[in-house]
Task: structure prediction
Amino acid sequence: MNNYEVLPNGVIKQRIVNKITYDYNYSNKYNQYGEKGNYLSYTRYGVLVGVLGRVPESIVDVGYGNGSFLNVCKETVANVYGCDVSDYPVPEGCKKISLNDISNIDVTCFFDSLEHFEDITIIKDLDTKYIFISVPWCHNLSDEWFMNWYHRRENEHLYHFNDKSLVKFFNENGYECLYIGCFEDIIRKNSSLGGLPNILSAVFRKG
Result:
């Protein structure tokens, strides 16, 4: 683990990074999941509405990929935005914005995206009421386990979280946890983990 360090809050950070390119082709690969991707998007939306107890007034999907979640949101949410460094277009009826454009947003989503950022503390400056996030669940059972872990993906996944470190990180940046779990494993279960959760999901409210 020479190129990794464990931060005081338990988050694992890659030290030296050779950034990969996030372009149209990177986002387009999500289309290969077909109905499975749509099923995941509807499940995410259902969990969000269940936690909030209402339909969001506005929503931003940061790192929206092929726009599957945006397509679900635009059916019921008044203002739907996508934010991504890729040039893959947002779906019709949605608007593409930058992180700096996030202003008075109800819910900001980071599905498999925050761990790609070089500076994950950007969340503290977002003008949003809630953050809904999913990340690979890093159990870090040993150095060998970590180095062979499918989701490590050096230079792509720059940070790694478990349930405790994710909550600590968000607490440090002014958020409280409303929900944490692994509901995405209904769709994204990984048999190689021997029954351990694969994807960690959480909803946080800004204090």
About this structure: The chain has one domain: 4-206. The first strand starts at residue 4 and ends at 6. The radius of gyration is 16 Å. Residues 8 and 75 are 42 Å apart (CA to CA).
